[in-house]
Amino acid sequence: MKNKSLDIEWVRQQFPALKNKMAFMDNAGGSQTLKPVIDRITEYLTEYDVQLGASYHTSQLASEKLDLAKITIKNWINAKHPEEVMIGSSTTMLLRILSLCISQNWQENDEVIITNCDHEANMAPWRDLQKLGIKINTWKLNKDSYRLELNDLEDLMTENTKLVAVTHTSNILGTINPVKDIAKLVHSHNALICVDGVAFAPHRLIDVQDLDVDFYVFSTYKTFGPHQAVFYGKLALLTNMNGINHAFIESVPYKFQPGNLNYELSYSLAAIPDYIRKIGDNNLTEGFEMIAIYEQELANQLLDYLNSNHKIKIIGEISADKDLRVATISFIHSDLKSNRIVEQVDAFNIGIRFGDFYAVELIDDLGLRQYNGVVRVSLVHYNNSHEVDKLIGVFKSILS
Q1: Which segments of the chain are extended strands (E)?
Q2: I need a labelling partner for 323 at 20 to 30 A (CA). Which of 110, 229, 247, 347 fits?
Q3: pLDDT number for residue 77
């Protein structure tokens, strides 16, 4: 990569919401929206807002625009085929659709492995299959290292295991799980892997072919876009799977998309990788690498303070190393409940958050419910060191 640093002033100019006085540090809950995304939504609604598939010119043009957007997303995540990419309303809904469709080919006593550190979106759809006789096993993280251990997964795998559902990055811990190694282990047992990449996608480049995952899903409203989500599935698997759409619809991915896409939001998604590419001088990989390096600096700035306060316990990796974690940082305080800390920070126009963040089982298994969950500071590349300094100053005044 070229020896170049992130142009934070240019970056912040791309997000209209950053012009106000609020410091947004709840980005794992939802990021701010790029101006090019907003522009594309307006463009679609003013230029191409018709139903697809007709013979007249505007309908043909609208279809072309959406097809180009899908190809851009395909290239973003390095899928092999455009048909492997599906756009939907949310990660939760897309995973629910997958569970309903894929389980039609399963038998009673088949098994699914979930983790205890996933968001509920990648747990509930699989747990609900128990009513069909599917057995659910839980891969639990090591409470000392806050990591999922491959040996523990190996012990859970059986000849009946059909699928392993795992998060790429916990939305509480911020830890990057070794998905490529997990996929290799899962495939060695002739099972499939489904990855929730919601907390990973804003921070790192996704390469589904390199990871060799079978299914991958993430939310675009956490990657600087609108309230949509992207799903990837290997074409052969999707082709051989029953859909959920009208019975006469058999094409992939349409058979998994009941009703129409949200055309204008889907069209706008192409602006996201285009923006990251500009950060890296027209290179998507370099853009994400520059983001990773910059976010590591911000995380290190905050973690230096948190690690220095003996009343604070970081829940997750204590290092800012970009190869180990993203800049989603959670902690508890020995004397103050998490909600009390966040409520005091609110007065300074800094947006952070407390709670379980729908990772209910993780909070309970780690005994963190008594603190009202964790305090979570989730940084992204449009945050700057001034904002982090301001937050640290507030923390110093209330966390002594």
Answers
A1: 23-24, 85-88, 111-115, 135-139, 161-167, 192-196, 215-219, 229-233, 312-314, 328-333, 350-351, 353-355, 374-378
A2: 229
A3: 98
With a cut of 70, list the residues of the chain below it in pLDDT. Answer: 1-3
**Helical pair 57-77 and 35-47, crossing angle rounded to 10 deg:** 160
Paired with 329 in beta bridges are 377
CA dist list (Å): 385 to 9, 293, 388, 389, 392: 12, 13, 5, 6, 10
Provide long-range contacts, Cβ within 8 A and 24+ apart, for 282-285.
284/76, 284/205, 285/205
Task: State whether CATH 3.40.640.10 applies to domain 38-274.
Answer: yes
At position 336, the amino acid (one-letter code) is L
- In the CATH scheme, what is the code of domain 8-34+283-398? 3.90.1150.10
CA angle centred on 99, ends 94 and 102, rounded to 5°: 115
Sign of CA dihedral 11, 15, 19, 21: negative
Q: Which pLDDT value is given to residue 3?
A: 56
CA-to-CA distance for 7 and 225, rounded, in angstroms? 20
**Coil, helix or strand for 185?**
helix
* Closest to 185 in 3D by CA, of 175, 193, 177: 193
CA dihedral 213→30→39→51, nearest 10 degrees, is 60
Domain ranges of the chain: 8-34+283-398, 38-274
- Check if the beta carbon of residue 324 is closer than 8 Å to that of residue 300: no
Q: How far apart are CA 375 and CA 330, in angstroms?
A: 5
In DSSP terms, 114 is beta-bridged to: 138
Closest residue by Cα to residue 387 from 31, 12, 15, 36? 12
Residues contacting 344, CB < 8 A, separation 6+: 394, 398
- The sign of the torsion formed by the CA atoms of 38, 39, 40, 44 equals positive
Nearest to 354 by CA among 339, 335, 344, 365: 339
